[in-house]
Design a protein that fits this description.
414 residues; alpha+beta; five-stranded mixed β-sheet; 21% strand; binds adenosine-5'-diphosphate
């Protein structure tokens, strides 16, 4: 203890003692005394050496622990950086250990919990939504990488787990959830579109096939039915041609392969031309048309597209609305043209409004299928408006009115 506390003093004392002994030894002639002092000298030197080595070892230890401390400090820093990164990552993430205890979660993960204020400590916690708890439990039991899809709160997630292996032993898993709701929605829309398109094309083809088979029978000899069938076949082939034409047009619009020739144009003139094209139909349905021009500024847009948009909307009023009045208001502000196309007809039910621009969507499907449209009219209108950087919306009240509102930016020439 004393030695440890006065190391320098003691070491000096030992060296001094050794030197002293050697000097005394020089003067002593007795061989036994000489041998003893030599032994004593060697022993003192050994102690001295040990103390020096100990000191070095201690120094080394100190250096080592400093290095260790530095290592721990830098590991703490890395851990903190990792935690910050994980916390702000937009993907829900959880790190669980080999016992199913939760070691780390991020904000996105906590947002999915039933009670956001409660800390989720284990994968068996009631706080975790049922489906996620099941997947976490599977990951914990299997100790293997897992990739699976689950639905939580009307959202779709892809769950990916990465097992953490240290010294060939399973230490837990890092589980990441990826929101794939939009992706799956687009996939479903695509699948529904293909199914709807096949159905739309199959219906007239089946009808034509049936009639041709009857007409081809050896014993068929009915001139009146033959005439009716031929008219019907003409009607169905016209429909097929229209659907295919609209489908191709829509696909070109979606792929942006249609070039818009944007020029300054007079919107009033475009609307008037659409009305002129549908004059016969409008007169036939006793629809009175009124155009209100509040904003006269020219609009930079593609005239063919705008003609298509208004012809479609006005044609729909003729085909579906049973209206007596059609009012088209051309309004605007500094930046936009705002056009309302409003009729006083049967209206559209609230539950149909969100789907009205969907491809092949028809209100009262069977009745309107025979009205002659492809069910693609409003989707084409929407694509054309969007291609001009504009927006279209609809509001309606059953048996009162239907109003389509188109907003187009005024100065877009590209
Ligand atoms: P299509 O190309 O067959 O004419 P649309 O996509 O243009 O079909 O229209 C979809 C549906 O919207 C129609 O089936 C019709 O029921 C409804 N609809 C469109 N415009 C009106 C309107 N002005 N009044 C009432 N219903 C309408």
């Amino acid at each position: 203890m004393f030695y440890k506390q006065n190391k320098k003093l003691m070491n000096g004392f030992i060296v001094g003692l050794a030197v002293g002994i050697v000097l005394i030894d020089g003067f002593v002639n007795n061989p036994v005394a000489r041998g003893l002092t030599l032994l004593l000298f060697v022993l003192i030197m050994i102690v001295f050496l040990i103390s020096t080595v100990n000191k070095d070892i201690e120094n080394l230890r100190l250096e080592h622990s400093l290095e260790k401390q530095n290592q721990v400090r830098s590991m703490d820093l890395v851990k903190k950086q990792l935690e910050t990164l994980v916390t702000y990552l937009p993907y829900p993430m959880v790190l669980m250990d080999q016992d199913g205890e939760i070691e780390l979660t991020n904000d996105s993960f906590e947002l999915m919990m039933h009670d956001k204020k409660v800390e989720t400590k284990s994968i068996s916690s009631k706080n975790i939504p049922f489906m996620l708890k099941r997947v976490l439990n599977d990951i914990y039991l299997n100790e293997e990488p897992v990739t699976t899809n689950i639905a939580i709160n009307a959202m779709d997630f892809q769950v990916v787990s990465i097992p953490i292996i240290q010294a060939k032993r399973y230490k837990g898993s890092l589980v990441v959830l990826h929101d794939i709701t939009k992706l799956l929605y687009q996939e479903r829309v695509q699948k529904r579109f293909v199914a709807d398109a096949s159905h739309e094309l199959k219906t007239p083809i089946t009808a034509i096939k049936g009639m041709v088979e009857i007409l081809n029978r050896d014993d068929f000899n009915d001139k009146k039915t033959e005439r009716e069938f031929l008219d019907q076949i003409k009607h169905e082939t016209d429909r097929l041609e229209m659907i295919v034409k609209d489908l191709l047009y829509l696909s070109k619009l979606s792929n942006q392969t249609i070039l818009l020739n944007k020029q300054p144009l007079d919107l009033h003139a475009i609307v008037s031309e659409s009305i002129k094209t549908l004059k016969l139909k409008l007169t036939d349905k006793n629809i009175n048309v009124k155009i209100q021009d509040i904003d006269n500024d020219p609009l930079i847009a593609d005239s063919t597209s705008l003609l298509e948009i208004f012809t479609n909307l006005i044609d729909n009023v003729c085909s579906y609305s049973k209206a007596s009045q059609l009012e088209i208001t051309i309004d605007g502000n500094d930046k936009e043209k705002i056009v309302h196309v409003q009729d006083n007809g049967i209206g559209i039910k609230e539950e149909d409004l969100p789907q009205i621009f969907d491809r092949f969507y028809r209100v009262d499907d069977d009745r309107n299928r025979n009205s002659g449209g492809s069910g693609l009219g409003l989707s084409i209108v929407k694509e054309l408006v969007n291609a001009h950087g504009g927006e279209i919306s609809v509001d309606s009240k059953v048996d009162e009115y239907t109003r389509f509102t188109i907003t187009l930016p005024k100065l877009t020439k590209s």
